[in-house]
């Protein structure tokens, strides 16, 4: 896992993602990625970005082993 300057990550941290609850409309890669990223960062302080995949906005986060996702929220790992 790459960690940017000033960021720290423990051994129990890993990249994960989930479908944005706030992004509205279709999300097309390369066209809407910046909008998706902005919505995701505003959506949750744990989010480090966002990207379009299969016309949906997926938020990128750093998850911890103790992080539990809501049963109804799809996740990418």
Automatic annotation (TrEMBL):
<dbReference type="InterPro" id="IPR003614">
    <property type="entry name" value="Knottins"/>
</dbReference>
<feature type="domain" description="Knottins-like">
    <location>
        <begin position="16"/>
        <end position="63"/>
    </location>
</feature>
<protein>
    <recommendedName>
        <fullName>Knottins-like domain-containing protein</fullName>
    </recommendedName>
</protein>
<dbReference type="Pfam" id="PF00304">
    <property type="entry name" value="Gamma-thionin"/>
</dbReference>
<dbReference type="InterPro" id="IPR036574">
    <property type="entry name" value="Scorpion_toxin-like_sf"/>
</dbReference>
């Amino acid at each position: 896992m790459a960690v940017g300057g000033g960021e720290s990550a423990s051994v129990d941290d890993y990249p994960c993602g989930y479908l944005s609850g706030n992004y509205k409309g279709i999300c097309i890669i390369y066209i809407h990625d910046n909008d998706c990223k902005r919505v995701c960062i505003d959506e949750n302080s744990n989010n480090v970005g966002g990207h379009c995949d299969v016309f949906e906005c997926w938020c990128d986060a750093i998850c911890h082993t103790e992080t539990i996702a809501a049963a109804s929220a799809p996740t990418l790992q």
